[in-house]
Structure formats: structure tokens, C-alpha cells
Amino acid sequence: MAEDMQDIGDDKTLLLVDDDEAFLRRLAKAMEKRGFEVEIAGSVAAGRAIATNRPPAYAVCDLRLEDGNGLDVVEVIREKRPDSRIVVLTGYGAIATAVAAVKIGATDYLSKPADATDITNALLANGADLPPPPENPMSADRVRWEHIQRVYELCDRNVSETARRLNMHRRTLQRILAKRSPR
């Protein structure tokens, strides 16, 4: 790893935006231990307010929040502070949203579960250096399971509608939903 990769610099301000309160608090503690001055926001509205009044040097924004899209916060940060480094997090990794995040100004894009080390590496990576791959990425089976769960939730837990949207037989989907999540 590059020597300057772990150099935070003079401005250590970090904005964390996520509506998962337990994850947000754990990540805030971990990032404070790494030398960041952390501010947290549990919604797009709160994230936009902080970004407008106190634009951070670093930011980590969840893509999907209860009150909207985390990319709205990224836009405000980029507008107020073009030199900031921003990582977008999401539990629903997709190429289209990754492209949208980078076009709007995100520095990197990570799928959940991402830990504090992955996030720190992404925030502090040089432009040319890519951060190292995660220590324990999700398995393909886990990614598939997460996608099915997401579509199932978006269909208000309606098995028939979920099966139709996934182009899958309803009984096959029921068997998948009945099993425990893969590692």
C-alpha cells in the first residue's frame, strides 16, 4: 500500500449518511478511532443540511435512504466542496447506480457489507491507486440471495409478484425464501 494512503491530511471532517442507525454508530466509532472528525446524518434531509452548512473533506453516503436518494447529498457536497472525497455505499450493488454515483462526483462505490477498513481505504486511495479488494467479499450465492430479498421487499413481500419480476417459478422462489441466507 502507498505510504500516503493512510494520511488523512489537515481537514479530518467526515460526514456519514445512513438510515441504519446501528451501522451508522458502529462506523462512526471506527472512523473516529482512525482519526476522522465524524458527523452523522440519518436521512437525506439531515445530510444535505450538514453538507450545505459544513461541507466535509470526506463523506460516506448510503444510496437508498428512507427519505430519498443518497446521491442528492453527494451533489450538495460536490457543489459546496469540489475537492471532497466521497464513497457511496449500498446494499444493492448495480452497475447503473455505480455509474450514476461516479458521474455525480463519488470517488468510489462499495457494496454493503463494507467494513471501516474498506471504507477508509476507498476514502484515502490516490486517484491512480485502486484500494485493495475487500478481505471477505460476498459470495455469488449471497449476492443473488440479497438481490432476491431486495426485489421481494420492493414487491411488499408478495411471492407471486416477486417471482414474475425475477422471471422465476413461484415454487422455486418459495424454496429460496424458506432457506437461510448463504454466507
From TrEMBL:
Keywords: Activator, DNA-binding, Phosphoprotein, Transcription, Transcription regulation, Two-component regulatory system. The keyword NADP does not apply. CDD domains: REC_RegA-like (cd17563). InterPro entries: ActR_PrrA_rreg (IPR047772), Bact_response_regulator (IPR050595), CheY-like_superfamily (IPR011006), Sig_transdc_resp-reg_receiver (IPR001789). The keyword Transcription regulation applies. The modification 4-aspartylphosphate is found at residue 62. It holds the Pfam family Response_reg. Coiled coil: none annotated. One of its GO terms (biological process) is phosphorelay signal transduction system. SUPFAM superfamilies: CheY-like. Residues 13-127 form the Response regulatory domain. It comes from the Bacteria. SMART domains: REC. Member of the two-component regulatory system RegB/RegA. Involved in transactivating anaerobic expression of the photosynthetic apparatus. It is a transcriptional regulator that is responsible for activating expression of the puf, puh, and puc operons in response to a decrease in oxygen tension. PANTHER family: PROTEIN PILG, STRESS RESPONSE REGULATOR PROTEIN 1. This is Photosynthetic apparatus regulatory protein RegA. It comes from Roseovarius tolerans. The lineage of its organism: Bacteria, Pseudomonadati, Pseudomonadota, Alphaproteobacteria, Rhodobacterales.
